[in-house]
Amino acid sequence: MTPPPPAEPVAAMVRPASRYRDSKVNRDLLGVMKGTSIGYWALLGLCVLMVHVAGGIWVYQVYKGLGIAGYAHPVFWGAYIVTFVFWVGIAHAGTLISAILFLFRAKWRNSINRSAEAMTVFAVLTAAQFLGIHVGRMWKSYFILPYPNQRGLWINFKSPLMWDTFAISTYATISIVFLFIGLIPDLAIARDRARGFRKGLYAALSLGWQGTTNQWKAHNRTVLHLSGLATPLVLSVHSVVSWDFAVAIVPGWHSTIFAPYFVAGAIFSGFAMVLTVMIPVRRIFRLEAYITDYHFENMSRFILLTSIIVGYAYLAEFWTAWYSGVEAEQSAFWLRAFGPYWISSWVMIIFNGVLPHILWFKKVRTHVPTLFVLSVCINIGMWFERYVIIISGLSREYVPAVWGTFTISWAELGIVGGSFAFFSMFFLIFLKLFPIIAIAEVKEIAIHERAHAEEGAH
Amino acid sequence: MSEIDRRNFLKLIGVGAGATAAAGCSELPEKLIPYVIQPEEIIPGIAVYYASTCQECSVGCGLHVRTREGRPVKLEGNPDHPINRGSLCARGQASIDRTYHPGRYQSPMQRDSDGALTPVTWDEATRTLAQKLSSAGSKARLLGGPTGPTLGDLIAEFAAAVGAGGNVHWEPFGQESLREATRLVFGVAQRPTFQLADSDYIIDFGSDFLEQGPTPRYAREFAESRDILAHPDGGAHVVSVGPRLSQTIGNVDEWLPANPGTEGILALGIAREALSHSGGSAGEFAALLADFEADVVASKTGVSADVIRRIGQSAAAATSPVALPPGVGLTSRRATATNASVLILNHVLGAIGRNVQIAPLAETPGESNEFRDVVKLIAAMKAGDVSVLLVHSGNPLYSLPADSGFSDALDKVGFVVSFASSPNETSEKADLILPDNTPLESWGDSAPVAGVRSIVQPTLRPLYDTQSLGDTLLQTARAMGGAVASRLPEGSFRTILESAWAGVDWRKALARGGDFANAPVTSVQLSPHAAQIEVREPELEGTGEYTLFAHPSPLLGDGSGADLPWLQETPDPVSSLCWQSWAEISRNTAEKLGVDSGDVLQVTTPYGKLEVPAYPRGGIRDDVIAIATGQGHTVGHFASLENDGRPGEARGVNVLSILPALTDESGGLAYLTTRAEVTSVGRHQRLALTQYTDNKRGRQLGDAISLTALAKAGDGAVAHFEGGEEQAGEHGGGQGEAHEILRPYDATDDSTAESLYRWGMTIDLDRCDGCAACVVACSIENNITVVGEEGLMRRRQMTWLRIERYVGEGWQELRTGRPSRIDHEELGKVDVRHSPMMCQHCGAAPCEPVCPVIATYHADDGLNAMTYNRCIGTRYCANNCPYKVRRYNWFDYSIENLPDPMRLRLNPDVTVRGQGVMEKCTYCVQRVAGARQLAKDEGRPIADGEARTACQQTCPTNAITFGNLKDEKAEVVQKARNNDARSYHALHVLNTRPATTYLKKVIRDGEGA
Hints:
The structure holds 2 protein chains of 2 kinds. Chain A is mainly α. Chain A has a single domain (about 35-450), classed as Up-down Bundle (Formate dehydrogenase/DMSO reductase fold), CATH 1.20.1630.10. Chain A has helices spanning about 10-15, 25-35, 40-65, 80-90, 90-105, 115-135, 160-195, 195-205, 215-245, 260-285, 295-325, 325-340, 340-355, 360-365, 370-395, 410-435, 440-455. Chain A starts with 9 loop residues before the first helix and ends with a helix. By secondary structure, chain B is α/β, with parallel strands linked by helices. In chain B, strands 5-4-16-15-14-6-7 form a 7-stranded mixed sheet, sandwiched between helices. A 6-stranded mixed beta barrel of chain B has the order 20-24-21-23-22-25. In chain B, strands 11-10-9-12 form a 4-stranded parallel sheet. In chain B, helix 4 packs parallel to helix 17, helix 5 packs across helix 12 (about 335-350) and helix 8 (about 265-280) packs parallel to helix 12. The longest helix of chain B has 19 residues, at about 5-25. The termini of chain B are far apart. The chains are: A mainly alpha, B alpha/beta. At the A-B interface, helix 7 and helix 12 of A face strand 30, helix 27 and strand 34 of B.
């Protein structure tokens, strides 16, 4: 499939036009970083406020105990782990777009990769908070690190939580490095045009980038190698997270389908989150020239594909439970669909498995408002997917005498809400400090396009 | 002031530095002070046991009070005591908190002119009392409950000495009708003792004998009579009559949900059938029994004539049948006739003198125990004939029906004196409070049954400025001087007690716990008037559609247990509710009223109304609404909502508040007296329900096997001590249950090869009756804290041991929506299994590999150990535990839920867990460690039975056995081996290799084969 031609002549985009000192690309994309409206400050202020409220709740929780959350025996993992898995899932789109699509030379990734990478980093950071929020004695959580100590205590490498610790920290490291390496050329562009504190900031961060051939060569090679390193991580991180559940013997958790199911779900939710964030960003900052409907359509295709995988997994889980002949497994799934969590389950099935099928139609794929609504639905559906898996699984286990039902508490609502604010806060700050679209890469594409166009003309 | 010299300068600096340093500390440093002169018998770290007697109810079980460094930390049964033989019920276990109760009166108090209580000294208080008594003369009255013979004598003597107009003895659930019936039939005003152990056919007319007791003795005898090894035919066949499936009825073979109040008719109907089958002569009862033809009885009782005939025939054919009279809840206005009918049945069955012993125990003066005396007292109070009322050992304002008018009468009394040790409804109305010591601080004695006398001895000095009732009376008498003083004996109450025991080696008796002789068996003769009883259906007050069945709570009893936190926290054995009141109604009734579990009902009788949440279930008659006694206190730290920050508000409802003060023929208070109208008020109350389904869904939990299957099974099933090839074990007893391949394994592999031990447990579900004594024992032993009503509603109970209750083999029904109670109970059908569940100490424990920090791990001796200090609270272990026995400290329970001085009770051998750590059953590792140290000192391995867990120790039926699985001769191994066909492992399919073996409950087919 060929991308539609750029709306404006390429030359006008990459070279300074007569009336301006700078090229249109630079003006458009650096322009996003300039000036802040009241709306921006209000939104940022709201986010900061919510983060503080959540922080206050968390401090109270540390002081008082996890009992302020909705946990009820036998549901020992609640909304915090649900939200943790949710954010780890969101973190998947970035690396997928940056690494895997890069390796596959999917050019359409260029105008969305920066925002997706930034989202990845922020989502991983948000997810990481939940490890501290979830544990009962966070002041002792350093026990989980393999540090040498006089007491001769060591950690348990058999525990999936240990694998989690390593998987998440590795993923966070590589996402940050990836984001930063990609930013260097753009930071240099910004440095050359910035004044005041920004000048110093960009100068320091751009690490003396001059745009020489050698630097570009090194840069491209680094990105290539990092992509190679990051690609397995896309698959491994959520596989490891899924093993938190699959390794346990809880009915509804103990299933070999979990790794691919979770990875597909993560990519699904990651792309949905990119849409949810980028559709308003494109509209507010008038970036239609860079993020076109074509980009959205391609992401929709990914969403459709992963939705089919996820939907298949839902069905497969029910089928496996029935086929297993294990009564505990069967009733766990029966109760998932018709038990006390039936609303969550059907939200999950409809939003994730059924609704995305409207994307078979090109009209839907290119209708931005519909896409936006759909992406929000998918985000909700994916949060509920984790809610259903974790909480309905735990609440109906092997001993019927102690079945119990979880109800989310005000503390969890506050902290989960705060996590969205935490994520948004970082994204809003990023929007004004760093180029949200990879300027250098867009230029590269534009030049390539021109070259193609010229070839065609001859 | 002179100049500052060097010495003063240094002094000032020192003081200044000290003050600064002290100000910097938020808490003063605690000092550990060693004994300057160490008491001879106290070795720090070694427990000392003192024999005493439990004072929680009138059964009189022997105690061994475990003390550490001078403080009682746990109560255990006295193995030498003939009544309880080492076991102790939940109420006895929980009663240790009476001493450490946070609400205790800390000194004598007098109400001043503003109505506020102000502390006074004992001298002042007794002088005041002496003055009041002197001026009151015969207008003084005493009212109290059971006290024990010596104290009872002293009280009576005191009453006589001060010239009081009366000394009324009243015990709420005193069962006066049984005593009166015995007098009618046999001419002896005495409550008979029933022996169950040797019986082979027990007809229980709603006595709830496992709950209402004498609990440990009946439970033990019931289990013995049905021991499956001694009686391969299933042992005693037990038929129970009662309107609801109580804890007791859940353990029997046959349930007859007869019309409440018609038990006497049924008893005579059975007696008639028994006679006609045995061909014996009805003798003097011929005329009486003539009216009780099976069909007539059937129409009155609702029990089919065929069943009556069958039971009559079986009872007549049995070698040692016995019938038990109805319990408190079924005392109707015709209770004496009902009890007499049951005694006549016993006579007809030949049980008198064999299973029923009537020993003429000397009546203690002043212990006439009759409600009609209370009625007279109330009338006198109302008439203003009482100016001083002394209330001891009881809480009449709570336990008398509101209709009795005691509350108004009490207001008319000029001066009320209470001897309560912690606040209750009556003491709150008192003008003078002279706090008694708690039983752990007092001297006393008890003579519960003929031949058994046991001593109450103090095990710690009174925590507060309190004084025992006996000493207070003596001091008051001396303050009154003159004739009063000279009439009472010299010395303290202790010396009086010792002299009362003259003729017995005091020190020996003290060490042993009492003087236990064999009960003298006396033969009783039928009274000539025995047949002159009028047996008919009782009249019920009111016109409501439902019979109000106010039955004693198995845990809270008559309400005296409501202020003990562990009795509130322990789930009711039937409903699994805690800290609340509920009304049991049938599912049909619930449907008719349009209510579900937790919907609030208004229950109206002609005497009042109350609002109580509904608890629909299958195991209750459609025309009955059952509400347990015990709740509804407005005073008491735990009994009221004071602990939840709402002092003065009632916790639950007191069903006595809507009962009339009606009596049976004997003048005893009757409880089955009224009908009730029941309507829904359209409000919902969240229930503190710990188990909402009794459907075991065919899983390997609470398994049972039928007698026939057991006879066929032979050696087919599997004990975990045997290695070898795979065997197909029959999972008997159930309908439609799949055959499963059970993999036998050798549990001894699950400890290291060097270890001599692999600790394990065998739990016999056929002996477990679900009494929950183990739950309380475990909680007290292991410093587990209560979490309260709110905590229970959120399912945060901390008990390491719970009793699961399953009904039958059901698995299909799955309800949606609100977690209403899912139950499988059916009217008239008994298939209840009680399954104690605690950490199974799996060989392949799922909790161990998932802990990221190795806080839980496998110890050398096979225990699944838990390191609290290492735990960071990821709670993954609890998720992965299929048995769901791990408990998590959601809050800092040990700080928040142990108000002063309850922390003094904590067992120093067990770590108190802080906020955010996981905990679970340790198999009482501290007891194992204690036994190991002793054995190590003596250079030998731990002997079998040396390390006993708290649950095992207290179990009245010996259902729990703990020991070393590597010791072939150990009881724990032998029990499982000898019951090979009954043994199974909970959730065996998961291959967790548990160290706990369960022995299936035996369902005795129909007639008991």
